[in-house]
Fold AMP nucleosidase.
Amino acid sequence: MPTDDQLPFQPIRSSLYSSRELMAGFDVADPLSHERIPDFLIYVYFVIKGRSTPRDPYAGMMEAVHDNSILRAMFNFIRAARQPIAAIMGGHKEPRGSAAYRAVTEISKRLTEGGFLMASGGGPGAMEATHLGALLAHKDAATVAKSIDLLATQPELPNSMNIVDKDGAVDKALVAKVHRWAAPAVQLLDKLGDGGRSLAVPTWHYGHEPLTPLATEVAKYFLNSIREDVLLALATNGIIFAPGRAGTLQEVFQDAAQNYYRGDGPFSPMIFFDTKFWRETLPVEPLLEALFVKNGHGEQYKSKVHFTDDIDKVVNILIDQKDTGAKMMSRLETLGMSQMLADS
C-alpha cells in the first residue's frame, strides 16, 4: 500500500480522467486484475484513511485539493465542449438487457445524436446505459442490439459492498466477481472504438461499485456531496429519472430543491420515465405538485415536470428546450460555483 508521500492519485490535475486511465491494467483474462487498476487502488487508500472523514490530515488535504482540481478540470471541459447537458438518474441495480436498460440506452443515444452531452453518476445499471447510449450514437439498430446482448451475458453486478474492509484487506473472491461483470464492457469498448462522448460524475464514496468502462470523460470525486450538487446543477437542460430506489429518490428531491430555490435562474426540466413506477411504486407526483403548484410555481411545474412512458416525448421535450450555456451559469450561480466556471 502506498505511504502518505506515495499517493495513488495525482492531487492536482489539469484534465479529467478517462475510463481507460482509471482502468489501466484491467485484463479480461485475469480475474484479479481489477485489484490492480488505479481506480481500485485509490478506493483502497480512501477506505484505509477513513473514507469521508479521513483520520489523517494529510490525506484529507490531498483529497480536497484533488476534488477542487477535478472540479476546475470539469468546468474547463464543459466550457470547451459548448454542448447542452442532460442527465439520466436511475437504479444502480437495473440489470443489463432489461426493458428499462434498453430504454435508457435509446434515450441517451438519441439525445447524443441531437447534440447533447449526456451525464450520469458513472456506475452500473441505468448509469451505465446512459454512457452506452452515448457511445452508440449514430450506430445502427443491429449494433445496438448486439452491444446490449454482449453486456447482458453478465446482467447484474454482484453485491460488492464488502470488497475492502476498513483496514484495506481485499476480498479476492469479490474482486473476481466484479471483474467478471466488468469484462464484457471492456470488450465492447474495444470493439466499438470511438463513439459519442459522455460525462461520468462518480465518487469513491461508492467505490465498491466499479466505474463503467463506457464513459469517456470522468470527473471522479472523493466527497460525494460535491459530486451530487455538481451533477444535478450541470444538467440544466433536464434530468430524466428512470426507476431507482433511495439514491434516485434523493436526487429527485435534491433537484426539486434546486428548482424551487433557483432565484432568477431556469427551472430545469424533470422527466419521470415509467409512469407506473413514479406514480405507484414511489409516488412522487403528489409531493412535487404540492411543493410547486401550491407555492407559486404552478406554471413551471406544468410545463417542466413530465411523467411519461414515451421515449419520443422524452427526447422531443429536451431537444425543444435545449440551451448551451446561459441556463447553466444561472443554476451554478445559486450554488456559488459560477465564478469557478468563468475563471476556469
About this structure: The mean pLDDT is 92. DSSP finds 15 helices and seven strands in the chain. The longest strand covers residues 85-89. The first helix runs from residue 19 to 22.
